[in-house]
Amino acid sequence: MDYVIQQVLNALAFGAEYALIALGLALVYSIMNLMNFAHGEIIASAGYAMYLAVALGIGSPWLVAPMAIGAGALAAVLFERVAFRPVRHAPSTTGLLTALGVSIVVQNLFTLFVSPRPRSVPAFNELSRTIFIGPYAVSLLQILELAVVAAAIGGLVMFLKRSTLGLAIRAATREFSTVRLMGIRANRVIAAAFALSGLLAGIAAIFIVARRGSVDPDFGFQPVIKAFVACVIGGFGSLSGAVVGGLLLGFLDVAIVSLLPQEYGGLTDAIAYALIAALLVVRPEGLLARRVELGDKEI
Amino acid sequence: MSQSAESTAPPIGLKHRAGMRPVVRSLIGALITALPVVAIGFLIFAFAPAYLVRVAFAAYVNLLIVLGLQLFMGNSMVANLGQGAFVGIGAYSVAILATPVAMKKLSIPHAPFGLGQIAIDPLLAAIAGLGISGIFAVLTGLVIARLSGEAATILTFSLMMIVHSVFIHWTDLFKGAQAFFGIPQVVGLPSAIAAAVLGIVVARLFKDSRAGLQLRASAESLLAARAFGVDVWRLRLIAWILGGIMCGAAGILYAYFMGTINVRAFHFELVMTTLAMLILGGLRTVSGAVFGSALLSIVLEAIRSFESGAAIGGITLPPLLGLSGIAMGAVIVLGMTFRPRGIFVRLELDELLRRWLLPPAWRRGRGRT
Question: In this predicted complex, what is the ipTM?
Answer without folding.
Answer: 0.79
